[in-house]
Write a structure and sequence with these properties.
The structure holds two protein chains of two kinds. Chain A is an all-alpha fold. Helix content of chain A is 84%, strand content 0%. Chain A has one domain. In chain B, the strands form two sheets. In chain B, strands 5-6-7-3-8 form a five-stranded parallel β-sheet, sandwiched between helices. Chain B has a three-stranded antiparallel β-sheet with strand order 2-1-4, covered by helices on one side. The chains are: A mainly alpha, B alpha/beta. The interface between A and B is medium-sized, with 24 and 29 residues.
Chain lengths: 213, 192
């Protein structure tokens, strides 16, 4: 394994281990997404459209991701640990990559519960929906981790993160709903792939400037 | 190794350092003293590259991976054990024979028996010992120590003193108790 990949693996493993021990983030994400889908199930009329149901699923996923992102840098913020990581000789973008993998893992685990719940409450899952969600996870985790790092330096971090993240999540919802219900899902999946590539490169390249003064 | 010319740092309207002149040769051991709020911690953070000066020049002839930084916070993860914390830093600093090195540091600072306990369960003094292990783990060329004896008991202070006495690297040590390191010091910087 190259030095960079080893650093990313070390940092991602650390985040997964911290969550395994503290159980701060994932249970909250699971509870939120199941609660949101339950509320939507009773709020929607029985003859609601597939588009409306799918749209609400995507909204639930975006807000579940936001919940995870709010806690993404919590251990580092509480004990000033970013200083320790920044001083290490590894490439600083490895901190972003490791954190992104952790966020993505939590999001995938939340979706493993959310998608069966959605199928139970609303309608069966299509391969297009699952593929779109997998692509969306990459983009949400990539840009969300960068924005969480920006917000964590601010005193108004709980306000700042949603304000930064939600506008950038709109294309994910458009692409996700489009891929799930449109006649030509390929173009929407391509759009989500492009979103992932653009924001992953942007976040990877700019992370160092975000965490250093 | 460290050279500061007219170094200044402000946080908004608040002036923390102004026109500081400092020269620390390789191997120098400088004690930084001064009252609370005089800029000791800020000077160490500037030298570590964790914050940027607002004026003047600062040259630090030490690459990022060769700085040992001991801050007010221990910079360890509370949910990880003492050994896991050192192993994490050992991996990031790519220390050869990492496991042996981590074990030796823990043993040296009397933490071997607590190696599998989570850092969050440690007292202030034990956390400080772990933070010292972390700071010295990669055998740094430049030590930046902020109140290193804070929270340490007599035994812990003795262990640190011995480590500093045998360590030949350059050091900048912020302290309210300069007497304890007076013999080792090559210079003193008093901030107002």
């Amino acid at each position: 394994m190259s030095g960079y990949a080893a650093d990313v693996a070390t940092l991602a493993r650390k985040d997964l281990l911290l969550e395994l021990r503290s159980r701060d983030t994932l249970p909250a994400m699971l509870l939120f997404v199941v609660s949101a889908l339950t509320v939507f199930h009773f709020a929607l009329p029985e003859d609601s459209s597939v588009r409306a149901e799918t749209g609400l699923l995507w909204i639930a996923i975006v807000f579940t991701a936001l919940l995870g992102l709010t806690r993404a840098f919590a251990p580092e913020r509480e004990d000033g640990l970013l200083d320790g990581l920044v001083l290490a000789p590894c490439d600083r973008s490895a901190i972003w990559a490791g954190k992104t993998i952790g966020v993505m893992a939590f999001l995938v685990l939340a979706e493993l519960v959310a998608l069966p719940a959605f199928a139970l409450f609303f309608h069966s899952l299509s391969w297009e929906l699952v593929a779109a969600m997998a692509l969306a996870d990459v983009g949400i985790a990539a840009i969300g981790t960068l924005l969480a790092a920006i917000a964590v330096a601010s005193r108004a971090r709980e306000l700042l993160l949603p304000l930064l993240f939600l506008p950038l999540a709109i294309p994910v919802v458009i692409g996700g709903v489009g891929a799930s219900v449109a006649a030509n899902p390929g173009s929407f999946l391509g759009f989500l792939g492009l979103y992932d590539a653009v924001f992953a490169i942007l976040s990877w390249a700019s992370f160092e400037y975000v965490i250093t003064e | 190794m460290i050279r500061a010319r007219e170094l200044s740092k402000r946080f908004g309207d608040k002036r923390v350092l102004e026109g500081l002149e400092l020269e620390v040769p390789r191997g120098g051991f400088v004690l930084v003293t001064g009252p609370n709020g005089s800029g000791k911690t800020t000077l160490l953070r500037l030298c570590a590259g964790l914050t940027a000066p607002t004026g003047g020049e600062l040259e630090v002839d030490a690459p990022r991976g060769s700085i040992g930084f001991l801050a007010h916070e221990p910079l360890v993860y509370r949910e990880l054990t003492a050994l896991e914390n050192l192993d994490l830093y050992g991996r990031l600093y790519r220390i050869p024979e990492r496991r042996e090195r981590c074990g030796a540091m823990l043993e040296r600072f009397g933490l071997w028996g607590s190696r599998n306990e989570r850092a969050g369960t440690f007292s202030r003094g034990v956390l400080q010992r772990l933070a010292i292990c972390r700071s010295f783990l990669h055998d740094p060329d430049l030590l930046l120590l902020d109140e290193p004896f804070d929270g340490l008991d007599t035994e812990g202070a003795k262990m640190l003193y011995l480590r500093l006495a045998e360590h030949g690297s350059t050091a900048l040590v912020a302290t309210h108790d300069p007497k304890s390191l007076a013999i080792r010091a090559t210079a003193r910087l008093a901030l107002a």
